[in-house]
Amino acid sequence: MKKVVILTILIFALEVLDNSMVPFFSVYGYYPSLLFLFVISYSIINDRWSALKVGLISGALQDLFFINGFGVNMLVNMLLCVLAGEIGRNLFKEKKLIPILTILGLTFLKGILVYIILYFIGIKVMLYSSVFVAIYSFVLAIFVYKPIYKLCQKPYMIKKWKF
Amino acid sequence: MKFIKNKLAVTIIVLSVSFLFLIGFSVKRQNATFLESGVGGVFTSVQGVVYKSTNGVADWFSFVTHFSQIKHENESLKAENISMKNKVAEYDALNNKLTRVSAMAKLLAPGAAYDYKNCNVTGKGSSDAEDSFLIDKGSNDGIKIDFAVITEQGLVGKVISVGKTSSVVGTLNNANIEVGAMDEKSRDNSGIVAGYEDDNNNKLGLLSNLPQNADIKKGDRIITFGTLYPKDIPIGEVISVGKDPTTVSTTAIIKPYVDFTKLEEVSVVIPKNIDLNEIKY
Fold it and tell me: What is the pLDDT along chain B (281 residues), one digit of tens a residue?
């Protein structure tokens, strides 16, 4: 239960920060999503079903303030989180090199997937901006992956989901 | 069939397909749904608080990241400040000038026989390039033809045409304007000043009709003696004296105190005991 509460608070807080504080720290207008960074890290560390759930929840929250197509982030986050969980199965998670490289790749992949979906529904966005966002996320991941890993190793976080 | 038993894969495929339908459906609508706008509203209010409190921090942060830009802006502001200071100084000088004009106007009114109407110069006259200019007062303000026009430096000329709200002033170097003048020191009062242009196109005045033995020297002050213009208004300074053997008289070139090309405000002298048919100063 404690795990659900902590995850909920973290996801909601990061969503609020993403929309209010992170844009102030933009570099040349590009800024990453802390929420996506967190859920991808969480997915790498935990199993695929947990990854599916956090992907869905974070995607739903991101879609609230997204362009008109509701569900874009839900779909993309779900797929990428499950992919991250799949990658995480074969990793030594306490080493941070491969996980942060995975984060770099998946963040870039998210930009491409969102671009493709938006392209098909007739909305044009800048593709190359996802490169900068991925690099920014990568730099942040260097610092935040270890804390997230330690959080996930706490006894109360290892329990199964109960909802 | 092994694939279908993989619950995770089935879940993902089902969800993906339903999301694709959801996207296709939601992209066409205009407004957010009730649920979306409700949850969005809660988020927006929380975000507002964080946003405001972050603003102060972000200001400092943007100062650091945009330091060179701010430095550049600071320099351009400095340059602007200097030019503004110059403009303020100019403004002060102009203000002083106005005070002097007003003071002079009072000084020039012995027994208050004259009123002085301050006018702004609004343009150059159309016909002769620099011999006339326009002022922003006319018959509505009591200005009539032949009234004298002065600045605090001296005589400018006279009104040669009047409209309701504007007038044309002929300057001293207009060929049609002649002024009775005298040497301030010797009070020799038979001279006439008319417009004169030297070889270098300098706008000067020619004082003629002086007697051959007139007591006039370079540097003397020439003033009006008060036939057609008010008395004792400075006109200019003698820069050279010559004898004219044919008319047996002395002539002098004078440099007017007023620079006719740089007039900004002038005063029209309005006599108080005005006769509509004839103007007498």
Answer: 555 567 888 888 888 888 888 887 777 766 666 777 777 777 777 777 777 777 777 677 677 777 788 888 889 999 999 999 999 989 988 988 888 777 776 656 555 567 778 888 877 765 555 577 888 888 888 888 878 888 877 888 888 878 888 888 888 877 667 788 888 777 766 788 887 777 777 778 888 878 777 778 888 888 887 766 777 788 888 888 887 777 777 888 888 888 877 777 788 888 766 554 555 55
- From the CA of A139, how many Å to the nearest CA of chain B? 17
Number of domains making up chain A? 1
Contact B8 A15 (CB under 8 A): no
Cα–Cα distance, A44 to A86 (Å, whole number): 8
Residues of A (45-64) whose Cβ lies below 8 Å from B: 48-49, 52, 56, 61, 64
pTM (global) more than 0.80:
no
What is the 8-class DSSP label of residue A124? -
Is residue A61 one of the residues assigned to a domain? yes
B82-118 in b/e burial notation, b at 16+ Cβ within 10 A? eeeeeeeeeeeeeeeeeeebeebbeebeeeeebebbe
**DSSP conformational letter for A30:** B
Range of the domain at A133: 2-22+30-158
Residue of A nearest to B57 (CA): A24
* Residue A163 lies inside a defined structural domain of this protein: no
Is residue A129 a part of any domain in this protein? yes
A17 touches chain B (CB under 8 A): yes
Residues of chain A contacting B11 with CB distance shorter than 8 Å: 52
